[in-house]
Amino acid sequence: MLTVLLGLVVLSLVGALALGIRREPRADGRHTPTTPQPRSAPPPSEELLIINGEAFVNGPHGESAFMESGVRTSFCGIDDIVFDIETGHPRVYETSEGRDLADFGLVQVAAYPRPTASLISALCAYLEGRGRPVVNIGHVAVPTKLYQLLRLAQAGVPVPPTVLFPRRLLHGSYEELRERLGHPFVVKALNSSGGRLNYLVRSETEFQLPLLDPTQERTLFVAQSYVPHNGTFRLLVMGGEAPIVMHRCSTDGTHLTNTEQGGHATLFEPDTFDAEARDMALRAAALFGFEIAGVNLVQDRTTGTWQILEVTSNPAIGQGAFAAEKTDAYRAYLSKRLRTQERRTSR
Predict the structure, then answer these.
(1) Which of 88, 266, 281, 346 is 20 to 30 A off residue 248, Cα-Cα?
(2) Which of 112-116, 128-132, 296-300 has the lowest average pLDDT?
(3) Residue 47: pLDDT band by 50, 70, 90 thresholds?
């Protein structure tokens, strides 16, 4: 037992040192990570960042050639990048000096080892949102939940604070995450769905369990603030309206409300649903250009505030809870959409 405890302490110290993060209190009493100021950093327009450029760093004609050409160049791997998402203030930075990727004048991804493909859409959205050019990134980007949360946060749509650390630093980050996200917090796989690989963490032992699972050694996990709630809501958005509103709650005392995990669903009358939450769901769907979408929301039972958990362009309509009602709404919308299109075509 003593050996395990010492190991956890060492992991925590290594994670904190590698991240180089210090904390400053916010007005609301919570803490926000701040990073060291870059050393003698030039203006953004004068520095290049190459991600996954090991071939240049280790090659005989690589890094030195960039320096000799007069172009100041930095290199980092995809496992050296942290995503720290908070409504209105998302940040993406590298861990060696704590520099925001938006500080660089140009960012290029030179290769795509795992897990680059899972992170590149969020990386691209962040840089474009900060007005920074990217090279050879957008056309290979696949939207992920991390991308969604980052885009929503950029647009000021409320989302739970979320952090993705590189896997090599995640084991030692429990105290950092607890301070950043509150206690308890949620750890879940980036690419999972239906409540799978989704854990409510109340202790460091619970935190380490999924990370030490040998079957998940290549899984990307994100940590997210837990929103205390009395159930979550799924709104089915169709053409700027929300004809279906479902409330989902846990039946086994866990934090999961997904019907795939045994959650109980109740149909709400759309006209009586909270107007602020409905408008938030419509805004979230419109942000991604989704004409048909499923939007998951949660209301903090202590503050009454609403937050978006997920936006999907392929919600389960013909199956699951209230499949008949969802299908009726879907059929009615598509019929209306078709008639509208026919009128436009006939003009």
Answers:
(1) 88
(2) 112-116
(3) confident
Task: Select 232-339's CATH number: 3.30.470.20, 3.30.43.10, 3.20.20.70, 3.40.50.261.
Answer: 3.30.470.20
Pairwise CA distance, residues 47 & 262, whole Å:
52
Report d(CA 232, CA 306) in Å as an integer. 10
SS3 track for the chain? CHHHHHHHHHHHHHHHHHHCCEEEECCCCCEEEECCCCCCCCCHHHEEEEECCHHHHHCCCCHHHHHHCCCEEEEECHHHEEEEECCCCCEEEECCCCCEHHHCCEEEECCCCCCHHHHHHHHHHHHHHCCCCEECCHHHCCCCHHHHHHHHHHCCCCCCCEEECCHHHHCCCHHHHHHHHCCCEEEEECCCCCCCCEEEECCHHHHHHHHHCHHHCCCCEEEEECCCCCCEEEEEEECCEEEEEEEEECCCCCCCCCHHHCCEEEEECHHHCCHHHHHHHHHHHHHCCCCEEEEEEEECCCCCCEEEEEEECCCCCCCCCCHHHHHHHHHHHHHHHHHHHHHHHHC
User: Taking a C-beta distance cutoff of 8 angstroms, is the pair 132, 101 a contact?
Assistant: yes
Mean pLDDT of 117-134: 90
The 10s digit of each residue's pLDDT in 54-65 is 877 766 555 566
pLDDT (mean) for 154-177 = 95
The CA distance from 295 to 240, in Å, is 12
> Looking at residue 255, what is its pLDDT?
66
* pLDDT on residue 168: 87
Q: Where in the chain is the domain with CATH 3.30.470.20?
A: 232-339
Angle, helix 116-129 to helix 145-154, in steps of 10 degrees = 10
